[in-house]
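Progress against Task 2.4 (sequence-to-structure conversion) is shown through the following example record, which the project officer requested during the mid-term review.
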Amino acid sequence: MIRKMRKAYDLMLEGAQAYAKWDYETSMRIIKDRRRYAIIILLALLPIVLLTASAEALPKTLGGKEAYAPVHSTFEMLAMSIFIGFIAGLVTGCIGVGGGFIITPALMSVGVKGILAVGTDQFHIFTKSIMGTVVHKKLGNVCVTLALAFVVGTVTGATVGGTINRAIYYSNPILSDIFINIIYVLILGFLGFFALTDYLRLRKRVASFDGGKIETQLNGGSETAVGMTKLASKVQSINLPPMITFDHDLGGRRVSAWFVVFFGFIVGLVSAIMGVGGGFLTFPIFIYVLGVSSFTTVGTDIFQIIITTGYSSIVQYAIYGFVFYTLAMGLLLGSLIGIQIGSLVTKVVKGMHIRGFYATVILAGFVNRLFALPTKLNAIGWINIDKNLASAIEFVGLVAFFAIVIVFAGWVLTKFVTNLPELKEGVRYG
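Structure tokens generated for the chain above:
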């Protein structure tokens, strides 16, 4: 059982790494284009400029609901969102996995409603993708029929996920926060536990053996080739028309479109509920369950992220007023800065240290959301504990989370500043 869970974790990590690579390439495409970068900066500062205008002159509703329009922003909101985006960018650039896992918990920690944090994070991902993504070579690996069937599922799942989030919020806003908290506790707890055990195992190996090869692997120097699993062979053996043929370069593989749509539904559902891209699920599902090659999986994941986050953020959240424009632009601007610094720091630090920080940051998010639950559960009447005690527990989780991410940010920035000469010369570690 533990072995299967570790296999699932390894594939989820591979998916998060593939998403981080796409995020980095997309960010670099924006940064290298001065016009695009200037547009992002202007969009982030626009709400502050609009504060000088009359509030009555701006629209107050969108889609029939109260909208979180730019007029509601403050400089403090923008600064905090830039900081959170910066940390997420450092995680993506330095650790090499998607930093989206910490955005929603971080926004909730500073007082943003869970459903608003989810919608805003998805809008931030979509904005980045349309600003920086170009249909490039990776999408050449996409089987169109496979991708379209998967997107049919993700869009359907995003519809259900968005509907569930809104229904719970309209029923009871506190219950909505509890629901999103529990989802994050389960996912971050699973990822954090295996990330920590993985780090301790690799640390022991480095101490016992020659670390050269291990360090190369930790820094992304090797790729894992995953063959067809027994489960994937069984799934592909089921003849349930219509059938989709893909991976022609590998001799051709076939799977029922119904399985692709179903698992796409799962990815879209989780993405819409958590406010993430969904890459951490796409990889294990495609490779472990459907038997799709890693090359086709990467291209399909990029394809679905753009469409799913666009549909989910706008149709399921924005038109109902659950996208905070100011925060989304701040997240985008901060992540663009953080991802540059983080990616440079990987050239001058040991991969094992990076793995250690990954486990620590993920567990910090887990503790943060877990410690926030007593206050919410007490408020809704499901448990009965002293309010001061519940508040104290939540405060401990808040302090622990931001203390860890600030230490992580400080460590990365210190490495960046102290190694500027080596970074300018392009010297890699070791």
